[in-house]
Design a protein that fits this description.
There is one protein chain. The chain has 140 residues and is mainly alpha-helical. It has one domain. Helix content is 83%, strand content 0%. The protein contains four helices and no strands. The chain has helices spanning 7-30, 34-62, 73-103, 107-138.
């Protein structure tokens, strides 16, 4: 039997890296460092893509994992999980549109959607780490 237990840690690490890259990319563009911003944001897309592949592979083999917390932690966990999951579905096309507009050098249109994509993507990345901690560390 194959051991898939490393995947949640990998996935949380990829989410955490994505969050750090997003913040770094935002700081770089605010400072006018366009080439560095581009490199960091492409890395963030790559990191998030690796996360998605790893996440789908893990859950294909393991299925769903049940939350073991009790009391007030259950509604907290499910509130975070539902918002995270909903926004994770929404963010994929937003990232693709934002990326496409940047690569086509449609910078006005890129900025118009990036102002929405950035905070949502950051939220999804950070809450992904929180879900991991609650599911596999704190209440395991």
């Amino acid at each position: 039997m194959t051991d898939y237990s490393i995947f949640p840690k990998i996935n949380a690490t990829l989410n955490g890296c994505s969050a750090a890259l997003l913040v770094t990319g935002r700081v770089l563009i605010a400072r006018g460092k366009i080439a560095a911003h581009r490199a960091v944001m492409l890395t963030a897309v790559g990191t998030s893509s690796l996360f998605l592949v790893s996440y789908l592979y893990y859950h294909y083999h393991v299925g769903s994992v049940h939350f073991r917390g009790t009391g007030w932690t259950r509604p907290l966990y499910f509130t975070i999980l539902i918002s995270h999951t909903t926004l994770a579905v929404i963010i994929v096309p937003m990232v693709l549109i934002t990326l496409t507009r940047a690569l086509r050098e449609q910078f006005d249109r890129h900025r118009a959607i990036a102002r929405w994509t950035f905070p949502l993507w950051l939220y999804v990345s950070v809450t992904g780490v929180i879900v991991y901690l609650m599911l596999y560390q704190i209440f395991a």
